[in-house]
Design a protein that fits this description.
Chain lengths: 229, 472
């Protein structure tokens, strides 16, 4: 019995407010040193769900996962994109050094198929990363996915809207993403295993469009004002 | 030369019985539907006999399952049997409607004696739940005659075979009716007495054909047989007495057929990646289901799982009266590509195929896509989606020279509804497509919207502003 209890403590399944525990759970570094520091050196947990909550695409959410995608796809692991809202643009992924042979795009028609597919991907040893854009998910369904994620040991990131930040979720890591002022990505840790949440950090994402800092004030007075720009 | 003859006394009955889950009484009825031709042991125990009128049989056993005898079907089932027998013997002759002849004299050294050949064939029959009477003879006809009387023994002794033949009645010796009656009138009752007659007398008094028949039995006249050649594909059929309404009911016969397929593939040392399952209905066009695996496969269990998924997705349109499983595409089996001793890479490869096949079986072939860049200037044509393939160890082309592009491409350009807050690089003019009529003439900019999203926007010739991608 005490053995079970100590395992629970060790894996940070039981949250202890007065103590920070260095967990020994398997994980993948995010590739962003700032974020890794904020997450207690853990990064993306493997064998558990992660959630990214954001409202609009185009704020650097894919670049957040790009280092992981690059590493996994070259390590022979498959990266699944499940029901993405737009088309992942192959030339851009290839330019960023993602091995496209290991990228599989899946579109499902209904929610039943979506959950079934995600569960199957999570349980397979070939999967390295699953990025999924679910519509509405019931807490029971997230719980089911969490169990499937535990059966495999891969990273699963669900992209959901920010309004779900209020709801509780069994996911092991929950990040709220928002655009910063300097084309950066502000990450707010809503939940993580083994420690207090609430860390905030800002990741520079200028490289996603080859923007330099000094270019920022150089505002072109849009072609809106006149044809001769 | 020694010949082995297999006589199937009730092949059609065996064929139907082994595809059934519940073993109820069953009988084969002749073409006109008047008489019982074959009856299974359960039916026999309740008093049904071959030759009985159908009405009598039904009044004895009200729940009697009936199968109508059909010559085409019987010929096809016989060929199915020849196909597995071909694994053990090379020279096979079909003797329709219910016999198979195999040359076994040349197999003795391979198997280590005639009794080993006999046992191998017997085991094959048992595995397939078939009843057959076997016999060995020094001529094809002798083997056939002995087998049909059910007195076959595993012996290569010619004297013994001849003694068995001599004791045979004229009826079992398969003389035509006219000859038999004439022989009986002469006062002959057994085949031995006919064999004892001098050949010249036999030809003169009866007919040259009778002499030929007798000499073929004895082996004094050549009786050439053309060997049968199997077609290079797998085909198995299961016929049902009662129509099957639930797809669950198809799994039981499929299990047997798939394990035969697995055995067949193992024997060929080949794999396959597509199966054709045809479900026949009584009043409708047959349903054709093509089951594909993403990679070479031979295990019955894997096929069964995929078929189960397909059947779950597509409920039966109508009750099924028979199913046919055929495989025409065979792939050479690859040597293990794994470099490591423990074979971990091979395992991963297999897991990949299993996963992709499962997903494709449920979601359809088009649900899974792989992306690749294409050489085209127009952004919407600079990528393509293709069927998922497993590529091993290919050298990646160098893509670092590609221009900067957003990670998200919209499915079609969306009108820009607000003035961007910040403008970054641009314009980048993309003009092309004059060669195929899909003309594109645009200036692309990178701009930030008020919401903080970094967008890839363009202005086209007609002065409209559109968003074409997001820098995700």
């Amino acid at each position: 019995m005490s053995e079970i209890l100590s395992t629970l403590m060790q894996d940070a399944r039981v949250w202890q407010g007065h103590r920070h525990i260095q967990t020994s759970q398997p994980s993948e570094p995010t590739g962003y040193q700032v974020l890794d520091n904020q997450l207690g050196g853990i990064g993306w947990p493997r064998g558990a769900l992660s959630e990214c909550l954001l409202d609009e695409p185009g704020i650097g959410e894919l670049h957040l996962l790009l280092p992981l995608m690059q590493r996994l796809s070259h390590g022979g692991k498959t990266v699944f994109w499940l029901n993405p809202p737009h088309t992942p643009y192959a030339p851009a992924l290839a330019r960023e050094g993602v091995n496209l042979d290991q990228v599989v795009l899946i579109n499902t028609e209904d929610d039943g198929d979506f959950l079934w597919t995600l569960e199957n991907c999570l349980r397979s040893p070939v999967t390295g990363l699953v990025m999924a854009w679910p519509g509405k998910l019931a807490a029971r369904e997230i719980r089911r996915l969490q169990l499937a994620a535990e059966a495999g040991s891969n990273v699963c990131v669900l992209f959901r809207e920010r309004r779900y930040a209020e709801q509780n979720s069994p996911a092991a890591l929950r990040l709220e993403l928002a655009a910063g002022d300097q084309q950066d990505l502000r990450v707010n840790v809503l939940k993580r295993r083994g420690s207090w949440p609430g860390q905030c950090c800002s990741l520079a994402m200028n490289h996603r469009a080859d923007l330099a800092f000094r270019e920022v004030p150089c505002v072109v007075q849009g072609p809106w004002s006149g044809r001769a720009r | 030369m020694l010949w082995l003859y297999l006589h199937f006394p009730h092949l059609l009955l065996d064929h139907v019985r082994r595809s059934r889950e519940n073993q109820g009484a069953l009988a084969v009825v002749d073409g006109s539907g008047q008489k019982v031709v074959q009856a299974c042991p359960e039916a026999q125990a309740q008093g049904v006999k071959a030759g009985m009128r159908l009405k009598t049989a039904i009044s004895l056993v009200p729940g009697l399952g009936m199968v109508r005898a059909d010559h085409h079907q019987e010929a096809r089932i016989l060929e199915d049997q020849a196909r597995w027998l071909y694994r053990y013997a090379a020279h096979i002759v079909l003797v329709p409607p219910d016999g198979l002849l195999a040359e076994v004299g040349s197999l003795q050294r391979l198997y280590g004696g005639l009794s080993a050949v006999w046992q191998t064939v017997e085991q094959g029959l048992n595995e397939r739940q078939l009843n057959a009477w076997m016999a060995i003879g020094h001529t094809p006809l002798a083997a056939r005659l002995i087998a049909r009387t059910g007195r076959g023994e595993c012996t290569a002794d010619k004297g013994h075979i001849l003694r068995t033949l001599e004791r045979m009645s004229l009826l079992s010796a398969e003389f035509d009716d006219k000859t038999r009656i004439r022989l009986q009138r002469i006062g002959l009752n057994t085949l031995g007495e006919v064999l004892a007659l001098p050949p010249n007398e036999l030809a003169r008094r009866l007919s040259p054909e009778t002499l030929a028949h007798v000499q073929k039995i004895q082996g004094n006249r050549a009786d050439p047989k053309v060997p049968w050649q199997p077609l290079h594909y797998f085909r198995q059929q299961a016929d049902f007495v009662q129509e099957i309404e639930q797809s669950q009911g198809l799994l039981f016969p499929l299990q047997r057929i798939l394990s035969e397929l697995e055995e067949d593939l193992c024997w060929r040392q080949q794999d396959t990646d597509s199966l054709l399952l045809v479900l026949q209905h009584r009043h409708q066009e047959p349903t054709r289901l093509r089951v594909r695996t993403s990679g070479p496969e031979h295990r019955a269990e894997a096929f069964l799982n995929l078929i189960r998924l397909r059947l779950d997705q597509h409920p039966l349109r109508a009750p099924v009266i028979s199913l046919v499983l055929s495989v025409k595409r065979f792939l050479g089996r690859e040597a293990t590509t794994g470099q490591d001793l423990l074979g971990e890479t091979q395992d991963l490869n297999e897991a990949w195929h299993t996963l992709v096949s499962r997903l494709q079986a449920r979601l359809g072939d088009n649900a899974l896509r792989q992306l690749s860049p294409q050489a085209d200037h127009r952004p919407e044509r600079a990528w393509s989606a293709s069927e998922v393939l497993r590529v091993q160890n290919s050298r990646l082309p160098d893509y670092t020279q590609l221009p900067r592009r957003p990670l998200w491409l919209l499915k079609g350009p969306q009108p820009l509804t607000e003035a961007p807050a910040l403008w970054f690089s641009g314009p980048e003019r993309i003009s092309g497509g004059w060669w195929d009529g899909q003309r594109v003439h645009r200036d692309y900019y990178i701009a930030q919207l008020a919401s903080g999203q970094l967008a890839w926007v363009f202005r086209d010739v007609r002065d409209g502003w559109f968003v074409h991608g997001w820098f995700g």
